What does this fold into?
Amino acid sequence: MEFFPYDVKELFKQIESKPNLWNRSAHEYRNKEAREHDWKAIYTHFEPNFDKMNRLDQKEIGECIMTKWNYIRASFMRTVKHGPPTRRPYVYYDHLKFLLKSDVKAIDAPHLDNNDDTLEQIPEKKLKVSPFLDEDTEIF
It folds into this structure.
């Protein structure tokens, strides 16, 4: 991966402040124009002269920031879902907890601390019952 010239923790703060980019229950989440506007605000935050740059430079900056975000978000969600590969927690876990609010139903992670205030109650998984089984059949 190429060098990322911006502060990733600041990127997390910027994205958290724009729920249209990460919260599926946000009013404008499905509005492409609203999301593009929010991404442009983030690009401008990191590159104050973003509006004055040519289209090629703007595209390069946008792709750099979005690619970094997508890699980090995917890695975080994989870690949450499957647990950390080692005993050490994910490096940006504390900074990305806000993502758990939007994707609680996708999380089935017994290793998470259930006392965490950022987590809502995780619904239990429903068992798929085969139509070929009787009601009295026990499933192991």
Q: What stands out?
A: The chain has one domain: 8-106. The two ends are 45 Å apart (CA to CA).
